[in-house]
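Ticket #4471: structure export looks truncated?
Reporter: QA, pipeline team
Priority: medium

Steps to reproduce: submit the single chain below to the structure queue and open the exported record.
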Amino acid sequence: MVMTGKVIRYDESRGYGFVAPDGGDEDVFLHVNDLTFDKRLLSEGVQVQFSTEEGERGLKASQVMLVGRGGNEKPSGQARHSRTDRRPDRETMTAQALRDELTEVLLLGAPSLTGQQIVEIRKGLIALALTHGWIS
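Actual output as written to the record:
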């Protein structure tokens, strides 16, 4: 069965974690050996597509792919919220929501960035967004 979900926990040193399926089903075990992409792209919050199989201790993800790769990928750097979609009646997004979206855009748009580079870029952009009142 092919499913999509978000990585909710991932321990890079141990090489495993868990995915929360989009359908709200029970979390699925994820192992680094079942990735079809570079393991450095995997982190908490990343959206993935995977097949499930019965493992020794329950459901296990296999053939794990990043969502958005291939023809369905958003253009690099294109966030879900654009300037034209800001309206006075619209609530501002939280700093955490912006951090999550920035991580997604940076991983898809510039997969060669290191974790430290992503952290520094996010800090600068979140500080800018706070000064302009774009986030709460």
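Status: closed, not a bug. The export was complete when the record was re-opened. Leaving a note from the reviewer for reference: The first helix runs from residue 95 to 109.
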